[in-house]
């Protein structure tokens, strides 16, 4: 069941079936080759057995015929006319054997007084067997093979009275059949036979090839039908998948747009809240303007107004260009921005908070940054507020410092409060701490919250800075490498 479920989950494409068909075809070719090889081997072995039996049967038949011809002269009286007829009959038998296409040599081999006699005519055979007359000696060099094989076959022929056959080159048979007179072996009939079975082999091979061709054609036709059907089914499936994909694409587009709108609405709410707070400061300062503080308050109101302009710009664009964040025209003093924020924003926001103390320890040699002042403001303000808001029920001291190390300059904002919740410092799948993710907050009223640290982190990335949050022995701290 698990295997079936896994197969159902897998989506087969056209190329899968093409590969499968290629594998099947190659397998069939390999099987056909192995089948032909095994068939040829079986055929060759069968032919060897057939040829061997045919050769031995043929030799045994002619031996029996010659024995019958000679047997009567050993047992019964005979005349000269009988001898002549028998001689002609034996010569005729030998001649008939040699006329056959597959018989290359025929003779009788006798073993007498450690000498081997090779007789191949009716007269010599009759004189030797019946009358005991030795034929005239002839050169045996042309039948050296006969003598060689006869010396190997003597034991089987004379002792065991078995037919002995030697196979030469897998085609030619040297057959020795015991020659008996009155039940005793006196020699052997020798035949050199090369059976002609090529026609039979050709017919069998052709038949096997014809059958294999039909099987191959049927298999290939079946594969072609399977390929056409699967291709049709896959086309139908692809059309259905395409329609389903289009529907899902529309649904996802609508969902993404809805999420963007919701996220943008929350960002606008967050920006509006900041702008509303600064507008309140402006209204308060306008009431306090007089001749003595006109210049000071005009500069302050101008910075407030510029910050509101930046907030409105953030409402209009989700991903601002780099040029409005980093530019050689911007010459921002980080220390001065920190002092202004603490004095004119943070302390005015938490004017009634007697539990919070803010201390600054700023490096005088901190270099000017080519970063938009109000982007720096958007980074630092939510981080400082975080240290105060999340420790509002206890006395907390917020220390803001700038310093240098071997690898660069840093801004550190730390408090002696309760520290960050452990889950906020965990990394997500993008290797970003959760405290810097959108809509992540520990506030009870978490509607439209979880944007301060997120916006600070995103702006740090746009500035080329690095922002980190850690717990230390006495509380929590944000560390910005500028």
Can you describe what's shown?
- With 482 residues, the chain is an alpha+beta fold.
- It folds into two domains: 13-196, 2-Layer Sandwich (Beta-Lactamase), CATH 3.30.450; 321-481, Histidine kinase-like ATPase, C-terminal domain (Heat Shock Protein 90, 2-Layer Sandwich), CATH 3.30.565.
- Helix content is 57%, strand content 16%.
- The chain has a five-stranded antiparallel β-sheet, with helices on both faces. Strands 6-7-8-10-9 form a five-stranded mixed β-sheet.
- Helix 9 links the parallel strand 6 (356-361) and strand 7.
- Helix 2 (14-75) runs antiparallel to helix 3.
- The longest helix has 91 residues, at 198-288.
- The chain is rod-shaped, with a radius of gyration of 57 Å.
- The two termini are 59 Å apart.
- The mean pLDDT is 80.
Index terms:
482 residues; five-stranded mixed beta sheet; Beta-Lactamase; 10 helices; single chain; Heat Shock Protein 90; 57% helix; alpha+beta; 2 domains
């Amino acid at each position: 069941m698990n295997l079936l479920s896994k197969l159902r989950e897998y989506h087969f494409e056209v190329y899968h079936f093409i590969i499968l068909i290629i594998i099947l075809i190659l397998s069939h070719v390999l099987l056909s080759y192995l089948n032909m090889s095994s068939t040829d081997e079986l055929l060759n072995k069968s032919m060897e057995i057939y040829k061997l039996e045919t050769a031995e049967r043929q030799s045994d038949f002619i031996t029996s015929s010659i024995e019958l011809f000679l047997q009567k002269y050993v047992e019964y009286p005979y005349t000269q006319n009988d001898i002549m007829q028998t001689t002609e009959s034996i010569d005729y038998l030998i001649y008939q054997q040699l006329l056959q296409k597959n018989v290359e040599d025929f003779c009788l081999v006798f073993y007498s007084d450690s000498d081997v006699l090779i007789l191949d005519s009716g007269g010599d055979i009759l004189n030797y067997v019946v009358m005991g007359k030795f034929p005239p000696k002839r050169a045996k060099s042309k039948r050296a093979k006969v003598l060689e094989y006869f010396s190997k076959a003597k034991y089987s022929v004379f002792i065991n009275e078995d037919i002995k056959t030697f196979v030469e080159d897998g085609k030619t048979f040297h057959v020795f059949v015991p020659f008996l007179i009155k039940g005793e072996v006196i020699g052997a009939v020798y035949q050199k036979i090369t059976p002609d079975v090529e026609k039979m082999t050709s017919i069998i091979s052709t038949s096997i090839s014809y059958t294999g061709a039909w099987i191959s054609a049927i298999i290939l036709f079946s594969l072609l039908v399977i390929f056409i059907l699967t291709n049709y089914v896959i086309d139908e499936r692809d059309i259905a998948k395409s329609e389903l994909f289009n529907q899902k694409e529309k649904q996802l587009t609508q969902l993404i747009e809805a999420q963007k709108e919701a996220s943008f609405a929350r960002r606008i709410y967050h920006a509006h809240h900041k702008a509303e707070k600064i507008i309140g400061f402006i209204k308060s300062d306008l009431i306090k303007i007089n001749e003595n503080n006109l210049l000071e308050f005009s500069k302050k109101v101008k910075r407030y107004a510029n910050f509101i302009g930046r907030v409105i710009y953030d409402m209009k664009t989700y991903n601002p260009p780099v040029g409005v964040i980093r530019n050689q025209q911007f010459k921002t003093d980080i220390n001065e921005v920190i002092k202004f924020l603490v004095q004119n924003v943070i302390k005015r926001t938490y004017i009634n908070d007697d539990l919070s103390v803010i201390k600054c320890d700023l490096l005088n040699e901190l270099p000017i940054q080519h970063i938009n002042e109000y982007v720096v403001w958007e980074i630092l303000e939510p981080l400082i507020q975080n240290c105060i808001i999340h420790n509002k029920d206890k006395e907390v001291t917020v220390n803001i410092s700038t310093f240098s190390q071997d690898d660069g300059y840093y801004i550190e904002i730390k408090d002696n409060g309760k520290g960050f919740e452990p889950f906020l410092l965990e990394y997500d799948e993008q290797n970003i701490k959760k405290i810097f993710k959108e809509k992540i907050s520990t506030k009870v009223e978490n509607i439209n919250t979880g944007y301060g640290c997120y916006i600070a982190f995103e702006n740090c990335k746009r500035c080329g800075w690095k922002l980190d949050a850690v717990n230390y022995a006495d509380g929590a701290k944000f560390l910005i490498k500028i």
